């Protein structure tokens, strides 16, 4: 296998061919991959590239309308709450409330301006995690909006915990969930104690949101919905192995994020999954622009730099599995009380827990998708992501699985040239 330095010349020649709209077989590539400068343009270009898919177009409609529809609904009597948008949907929907995902905040907005605003208002050092800086600025710009409740999970990251405290002065009502992490030691007795504690913490969320105890029957129904939807999502993942570029990386990113909150439209999201499954089962094969497919696994944050995903697709890569904060690969228990089921699910999965607990899931994803390599993606200044990546990288390096680390920023413009060059070189190395 060639090293990254050895393939730079070949990669640059390929880039030149694509920028000049000519591929080795004489065909022209789809679209102009260098032209988009913001997230909306990347989405519209991807929509055009997927003009054969009504499902993908509908997915982008959901993504673009998600925040505005939730805010409008909140004003019209359908309550909404800020949350992580990762795995708390069964609890929040059981309270008849729409989750507004913190991590989608700014994804389609002006995060660069928000980060600068945060630095100016709060004297945030430039070394601060770009995600936290941008979110503070985004919340400040939304300080007069109607959605004021926030459910904050304490183990997401410590800088974000501090940011939650800072936005209290803007009138946001913060409810902390003291979220524990699965112990490596201590045995079943210790684990059961933590489950009981976290169950009580989750019960308090319902009281915070509604002023009354949780309707457990409703949450049991929502858990069944989550399991049903994730089974459909896994079917899409499986079908993509045979036709990787029918649904390319960017729409898969949004489909993945939607698995944690359904874009505020649970019934419509399920219909969308069914439509995409039907399309994949009957679709013609979509070839790579360069005549090859390199199956890959994405590990880490769900980046905002959409050009990275486009570069993967255009150079023959296919992100066929995703180890991100969205745990689509696991099942909620339906045979125990719903809050206990949620506590057990969190303790088994949570990505900010010990990396030791997570490696087995990444290995299974690599095996199921036939991945030849892995991208590890973290945000600049992330205090825990970098450490996790190094632990993962060391483990999989010893297993002989190639990887490339990508460090991006929480910004909505085109990705840096350096980031794209790393993507291009890594895929070329695996070809």
What does this structure look like?
This protein is α/β, with parallel strands linked by helices. It has one domain (5-430). The protein is built from 16 helices and 8 strands. Strands 6-5-7-8 form a 4-stranded parallel β-sheet, sandwiched between helices. Helix 12 links the parallel strand 5 and strand 6. 46% of the residues are buried. Residues 1-33 have low confidence and may be disordered. Belongs to the FldB/FldC dehydratase alpha/beta subunit family. It holds the Pfam family HGD-D. InterPro entries: FldB/FldC_alpha/beta.
Short description:
Belongs to the FldB/FldC dehydratase alpha/beta subunit family. The protein is of the alpha/beta class. The chain has helices at residues 8-19, 39-49, 54-75, 89-94, 111-122, 130-141, 158-166, 187-210, 216-242, 249-258, 266-282, 306-314, 338-349, 359-369, 385-398, 417-430, and strands spanning 80-83, 98-101, 149-153, 173-177, 294-300, 317-323, 373-379, 403-408.
SSE layout and pairing:
Elements: H1 8-19, H2 39-49, H3 54-75, E1 80-83, H4 89-94, E2 98-101, H5 111-122, H6 130-141, E3 149-153, H7 158-166, E4 173-177, H8 187-210, H9 216-242, H10 249-258, H11 266-282, E5 294-300, H12 306-314, E6 317-323, H13 338-349, H14 359-369, E7 373-379, H15 385-398, E8 403-408, H16 417-430
Parallel strand pairs: 1-2, 3-4, 5-6, 5-7, 7-8
Helix pairs in contact: 3-10, 3-11, 5-6, 6-7, 8-13, 9-11, 12-16
